């Protein structure tokens, strides 16, 4: 599958690397294709990964992953161009400088993104754990859970498959509006990590009886 990852930070870089290693074709969309950090990232990936302009990366992709800071969403979507029919995975978290939730509970960052890209198929996922867990989601107790929210069924199956391939228990949480619950849940992870000093190498799980 052709995947564009907009953003080459810790989360975008980790997700792009892992999907490339799983056999997908990954293009990191960047503003400057000569950026040294982005090119170094790509050179260290064992798979089909390249650097491209944001618009070119998005145009060639079936799946576009938005992994920029939340406040950069509008600029990133504008730079990506026409996203009609594409699966757009929002991995951002709408938080403020003091780590509180910037939107909710009557809307969500993902729903705001859907307004910026009204012809894309938008899904919320991969925002509920740190990049260290994304790099290696193996735990003695089992797989960490990763909730996915979105409206269109066929696109959601693609997202669930991509999330599950990383090693998470991918759970369909419902329609995109459920991001109003998923984003505060992600802020709980951030709170435990930053305020309660639990570190970054933990994740939530789903137990059944």
Brief summary:
Helix content is 36%, strand content 19%. The protein is an alpha/beta fold and 209 residues long. It starts with a strand and ends in a 15-residue tail after the last helix.
**Which range does the strand content fall in?**
15-25%
CATH-scheme architecture: 3-Layer(aba) Sandwich
Largest sheet: 8 strands, mixed
- Overall shape: globular
- Helix-residue proportion: 25-40%
Total number of helices? 8
**Number of strand elements:** 8
Estimated structural class: alpha/beta
CATH superfamily: NAD(P)-binding Rossmann-like Domain
Poorly predicted runs: none
Average pLDDT taken over every residue: 96
Distance from N terminus to C terminus (CA atoms, Å) equals: 36 Å
Word description of this protein:
The chain is 36% helix and 19% strand. With 209 residues, the chain is an alpha/beta fold. Helix 1 (10-21) links the parallel strand 1 (2-6) and strand 2. The protein is globular. It has one domain (2-194): Rossmann fold, CATH 3.40.50. It has an eight-stranded mixed β-sheet with strand order 3-2-1-4-5-6-7-8, with helices on both faces.
